[in-house]
From TrEMBL:
Keyword set, alphabetical order: ATP-binding, Nucleotide-binding, Transport
Designated name of the protein: ABC transporter ATP-binding protein
InterPro entries, per database record: AAA+_ATPase, ABC_transporter-like_ATP-bd, ABC_transporter-like_CS, P-loop_NTPase
Keyword DNA-binding among UniProt keywords: no
SUPFAM superfamilies registered for this protein in UniProt: P-loop containing nucleoside triphosphate hydrolases (SSF52540)
Organism superkingdom: Bacteria
Length: 355
């Protein structure tokens, strides 16, 4: 199974500009997580910090007892072998065909024979639907195929942690849907810990087990999908609904006067071009393709959610219970339509680990 990634008090700056500060969360082992945020909030910087490509000024990143922020270069090199990274553009070598691109990490980091390399490469190419494209160059194929080739290359060393930097970038909605399904299928097959950095609302709502949100140089929330999809946290609700009305502006944030003027405009019945329907609620999560194993991550996540459901607002409790299957209702001994308990004034849990 994938490994747990524990982030404590992480702060990253470039010169005098703080990108984000005091970020704390835990990526649960073997689960799919998504980090959201408006453009320019440091999502990709966070991903690169996790793999050791950038060094934060403060905090810890602990994997298997090793703090990547303070460990030796030799130890960091060893820990990096646990990672597979899918970069935005696939990061393929333009002069190499797809087979050689995907084989590159095996030839660079292992002493496997060419027969072993061929077996692994073809296995991973089949996994991502690229059989028959071995001899094609990156410039001869579509963006979606390049993404899949990049993913196959990220998988050849059998990583326990997979990082995906905006996998939907440059893809149309259909190819994005196929890639989303592919990531869920991979998790079902290899149970790796997966972190996807994106600002795609559909990916955020349907793919991950856990969701996080970066805004105003801080981690606003991180926790199981059910918690964020039913959240009334203004920035989370605005982002997941794709609305203009809320704290996020064309620049990263709005001042109070702008927010008040927009609210008055909306209260007067004027449309701002945003979706009329409030999409808050626990929509169905993508399931593995029929024939693949059940994702154990789903049960682990639901167990966590039901252990904290009494801490959540009344409306969130109702929304979460409404999303449970009949088997879930029996497992957790709750009844459809009934809240887990009376309304609570407690605020939403914020950052500081897995909810």
């Amino acid at each position: 199974m994938g490994v747990e990634v524990v982030v404590e008090g992480l702060t990253k700056s470039f010169g005098k500009q703080t990108i984000w500060q005091d970020v704390s969360l835990t990526l649960p082992p073997g689960e799919v997580s998504v980090m959201l945020g408006p453009s320019g909030t440091g999502k990709s910087v966070f991903l690169k910090s996790l793999v050791g490509l950038l060094k934060p000024e403060q905090g810890k990143i602990v994997i298997n007892g090793t703090d990547l922020v303070r460990c030796s270069e030799h130890r960091l090199y060893e820990i990096r072998k646990m990672f597979g990274v899918l970069f935005q553009d696939g990061a393929l070598f333009g002069s190499m065909n797809l087979y050689d691109n995907i084989a590159f990490p095996l030839r660079e980091h292992t002493r496997k024979t060419e027969a072993e390399v061929r077996r692994i490469v073809l296995e991973k190419m089949e996994m991502v639907g690229l059989v028959g494209a071995e001899k094609k160059l990156p410039g001869e194929i579509s963006g979606g195929m390049r993404k899949r080739a990049g993913l196959a290359r990220a998988l050849v060393l059998d990583p326990e942690i997979i990082l995906c930097d905006e996998p939907d970038s440059g893809l149309d909605p259909v190819r994005t849907a196929y890639l989303s399904q592919l990531l869920i299928d991979l998790n079902a097959q290899i149970d790796a810990t997966i972190l996807i950095v994106t600002h795609n609302i559909n990916i955020a709502r349907t793919v991950p087990d856990n969701l996080g949100m970066l805004f105003r140089r801080e981690l606003v929330m991180f926790g199981p999908r059910e918690v964020l999809l039913t959240s009334d946290e203004p920035v989370v609700e605005q982002f997941l609904n794709g609305r203009r009305l809320g704290p996020i502006g064309m620049s990263e944030e709005k001042d109070q006067a702008t927010m008040a003027a927009e609210q008055a405009h909306a209260d007067a019945g004027h449309s701002d071009g945003s979706p009329d329907e409030d999409m808050r609620g626990v929509v169905p999560q993508l399931e593995p393709t029929p024939g693949l194993p059940f994702r154990d991550a789903v049960r682990r996540r639901k167990d966590r959610v039901m252990s904290i459901i009494h801490q959540l607002p009344y409306e969130a409790q109702q929304g979460i219970i409404a999303s449970l299957t009949p088997d879930d209702l029996a497992r957790y001994n709750v009844h459809a339509g009934a809240p887990a308990q009376a309304p609570t004034p407690s605020p939403w849990p914020r950052q500081g680990g897995v909810l």
